[in-house]
Amino acid sequence: MKKILFPSDFSPAANNAFKYALEFASKFEAEIMVLHTFNLPIVTDNQIFPENYIEIFNSTELAQFDYFKDKMASIRQIADEVGFNQNKLSHILLDGDLLFNIKKVVKEAAIDFVIMGTNGATGWTAFFIGSNTGAVLTAVSVPVLSIPLEAKFDKTDTIAFTTCYRTKDVDALKIVVDFALKINVNVKCLHVKSSDSKLSEKDISEFEAHFKNDNVSFFILPSEHIQQTISDFLIGEGIDMLAMLTYKRNFFEAFFDHSLTQKLSYNLATPILALHE
Question: Do 25 and 4 meet the contact criterion of CB atoms below 8 Å apart?
């Protein structure tokens, strides 16, 4: 990992996430690229001439630049406070849509990892489907670590990975294991097994055999309440980060809008690492 993209609006949620970005940048000796986006005002007066648009653009861009410059000084102060002031920081200021600009920078700057903050939501559905962070999780091609405002920055010791023991999960878990090895943390792999599961002992043993030489613990918990079981596992096992393999947005709609879904906003205190197929 050489480049971490950190989109920020300099809100409390973003500043909280910045501490995590600093930690991982330090461990991977990576550069942090801080991205701030802004939107130009919408002009509806038909009497405004092209030169007036240029004036509006220049004045808005200048104001945003001054704001960005002041806020960059404040996040450097955060780096000093948490002891990660040696990280290389670069800055990007772009106008336009946040998701479009994130995807653009990821591609053009060869970004390896995205870390961003999220304000709390009323449940997992709102988080994954109804937020900017949720959109980024499902649309960006590189791993995305989302940090809830409620997350308390501390040393990362344990990562959980949820699996259905599919072949595609093997590669995703290998990424998590490699990531965990580099930052010296444990991995706990969880499968929530419902009563209609077709999973066989052979499927389980073949999957787990891929990781017999790795520091991975496997847990299979029978339950019909997937979210609640995951939540209890995160709390009971002292999980610092939850890694998940993402799908198309319709997967989240189907999974998190299930009739048994409970609103579990407290789950969002756990950072979520989204990996892609």
Answer: yes
pLDDT range class, residue 141, cuts 50, 70, 90: confident
Say what the pLDDT of residue 125 is.
42
216/186 Cα distance (integer angstroms): 7
β-pairing verdict for 31-38 and 186-193 = unpaired
Cα–Cα distance, 216 to 239 (Å, whole number): 13
**Residue 81 reports pLDDT greater than 90:** no
Q: Strand 216-222's sheet: what is its strand order? A: 89-95, 31-38, 3-7, 113-118, 144-148, 272-276, 241-246, 158-162, 186-193, 216-222
Q: Please, is 270 exposed, middle or buried when counting C-beta atoms within 10 Å of its C-beta (0-12, 13-18, 19+)?
A: buried
Whether 164 contacts 171, CB under 8 Å: no
Distance separating the N- and C-terminal Cα atoms of the chain: 19
CA 164 to each of CA 5, 28, 170: distance values in angstroms, whole numbers, following the listed order: 30, 30, 10
- Backbone dihedral angles phi then psi of residue 143, each to the nearest 5 degrees: -55, 140
How many other C-beta atoms are found inside a 10 Å radius of the C-beta of residue 198? 5
Instruction: Tell me the helices (H) and strands (E) count for the chain, helix number first.
Output: 9, 10
The gap from C-alpha 3 to its chain's centroid, in whole angstroms, comes to 15
User: Torsion angle, CA of 115/121/127/129, rounded to 10 degrees?
Assistant: -130
CA dist., res. 233 & res. 221, Å (int): 9
Q: How far apart are CA 169 and CA 206, in angstroms?
A: 12
pLDDT exceeds cutoff 60 at 62: no
